[in-house]
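dumping this here so i dont lose it
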């Protein structure tokens, strides 16, 4: 392998670890603050319920402390996942829930960019933004080609 290929593999592995770290930190933060994500249940998918109030859109700004930005990002992500249109097709339901999940990672990465000067964290956050946005585009394209969720 060439050095550039090895470096690319290392960067990819570092980003994957970073995504896991972000998710672990977000989960720990949510647990510490009493927030627990619960996806839609079968009964929630079949019977309309009163929808929770929509949180305001996520805006990354130094007007709020970092912890509050993370809480905002989690609230928007959880709401998006809970409101994802589900039709019982695993492929469709996976995609519709993963899009707000990935957007949550983008929002958290944007938040940390406002508060860190650490070059490794900045590089990781920029990579997360790029990769997660690309994956969101792939998922949107998949939904356009499979509106009913049938992956066949």
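and the seq i came up w/
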């Amino acid at each position: 392998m060439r050095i550039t290929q090895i470096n690319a593999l290392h960067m990819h592995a570092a980003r994957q670890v970073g995504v896991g770290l972000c998710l672990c930190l977000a989960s720990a933060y949510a647990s510490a603050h009493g927030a627990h994500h619960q996806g839609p249940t079968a009964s929630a998918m079949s019977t309309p319920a009163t929808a929770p109030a929509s949180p305001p859109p996520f805006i990354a700004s130094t007007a709020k402390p970092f912890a509050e930005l993370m809480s905002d990002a989690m609230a928007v992500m959880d709401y998006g996942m809970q409101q994802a249109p589900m039709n019982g097709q695993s492929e469709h339901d996976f995609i519709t829930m993963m899009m707000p999940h990935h957007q949550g990672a983008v929002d958290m990465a944007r938040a940390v960019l406002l508060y860190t000067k650490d070059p490794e964290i900045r590089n990781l956050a920029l990579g997360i933004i790029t990769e997660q946005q690309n994956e969101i585009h792939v998922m949107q394209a998949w939904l356009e080609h499979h509106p009913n969720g049938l992956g066949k």
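The chain has one domain: 3-36+58-145.
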